[in-house]
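Hi, here's the filled form for the chain we discussed.

Project: internal
Contact: R.S.
Residues: 326
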Amino acid sequence: MKTLNLIKKLTVIMLTMIAFTSCSNDDDNSTPMPEPTPDPLNIVETAQSVDDLSILVDAVIQAGLVDALTAAGDKTVLAPTNAAFTAFLADKGFSSLSEVPNDVLTQILLNHVIAGTNYQSSDLSGNTGYENTLADGPNATKLSIYYDGTSGVSFNGGANVVIPDVAASNGIVHVVDQVIDLPTIATFATTNPALSILVEALAYADTGAPTVPYIATVSDGTAGPFTVFAPTNDAFVNLLGDLGVSALTDIPTATVDAVLLKHIVNANVQSSDLESGVVSTLGGDITADATTFTLTDESGTSNIVTTLVDIQGANGVVHVIDRVLR
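And the returned structure, exactly as it came back:
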């Protein structure tokens, strides 16, 4: 009887040990609790995490834009590398970032921010167009920026995206290889291939006795502001055909000068401010119809290209038209 009781006790002990061992093994093989996912970095924190953006971070702090760039809301930020900032400072004659006036630095930095949307590089690839930055233009406007996604992605003809699509909690960052200076009318005329003959016309007029030094004036950010009705390349080709000549150089420079003046208004007139009636250009009066978005001179009517209006530079605004005014 004692032997039977001993066997029972040993059995209970063994079962208890087996059960305990089983529980211990379950604990050892259990899936560990995942570490909490850290909150995504905001735009400033993202820049701080990249060594090659340290000058940009210093610039943002100096200009007092930390709060603006950490605030919630969609933003596309173009972030120049240290090498880009170093080249920009040297080009402007500054030996250090601290020498740049804060008001100037603020506008330069804001010219790298497109507010209200997060543009992925895939959104721009294969396309060209204009957006507004947060930088201030004449008459309470915002400056435009031209993007070209036909071969990589670049902005205003020079700043190439070298690291795209860096996600942040309040936007997206694209690292670029050039600081994007405040644009002028010349910036937009020279970066858009569809306006190349206009640039040629301005340069050709300058070889004569121009009423204004065209290239110098449209390149000067402190000039104006002006409104420029910019004929497309096709518009110039059609003009040459109408005149029976094969090249601009077949036309006297004085005539080209007179034609160009018909496309310049001595004021910054955005499309929303265009009124029907007489518009006084530097070359004489034309007539505008704000309903049909057309301009009429003595030789006919030109259409304002509605998808290419309000291209705002520091020294004026550009509206593209489909016919040369005369």
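Let me know if anything looks off before we file it.
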